[in-house]
Design a protein that fits this description.
With 118 residues, the chain is an alpha+beta fold. 40% of the residues lie in helices and 19% in strands. It has one domain: Nucleotidyltransferase, domain 5, CATH 3.30.420.100. Strands 3-2-1-4 form a four-stranded mixed beta sheet.
């Protein structure tokens, strides 16, 4: 029996399908109710080049004001710096099933602030 896809799964599939056209490395973002995660992924080789999450000590110490959005901004800056150190300058932003708003948008702005081109 086939399983019906939820609206989140359909949205995620639609976003990823449009990203494959670019053929670049992608910055994938996941958010839970408490934490933020970001990864720079090379799909051709199937490996993660850089990652950052709100669970890391560097993020907690570098937290700015603004609550979860401030933490998301620091996560974006950190993953951007690590991607630049890995030799990645241009990425495609993969928001997954999440809307480009709030914490997801803050990660993108933090990555741009660190010098990554989205």
């Amino acid at each position: 029996m086939l399983k019906r896809m939820t609206s989140e799964e359909r949205r995620k599939r639609r976003v990823r399908k449009s990203l494959k056209k670019h053929g670049r490395v992608r910055l994938s973002v996941h958010r839970s109710s408490k934490e933020m995660y970001a990864q720079v992924i090379d799909d051709r080789e199937g490996r993660t080049l850089a990652s950052a999450s709100s669970l890391e000590r560097e993020v907690r110490e570098g937290k700015k004001e603004g609550g979860k959005v401030g933490v998301a901004m620091v996560v974006g800056e950190l993953v951007g710096k690590r991607a630049l150190d890995a030799g990645v300058k241009q990425v495609v932003f993969d928001r997954g099933c999440f809307l480009y708003h709030g914490r997801v948008k803050a990660v993108a702005e933090g990555a741009r602030k660190s010098g990554l081109e989205l």
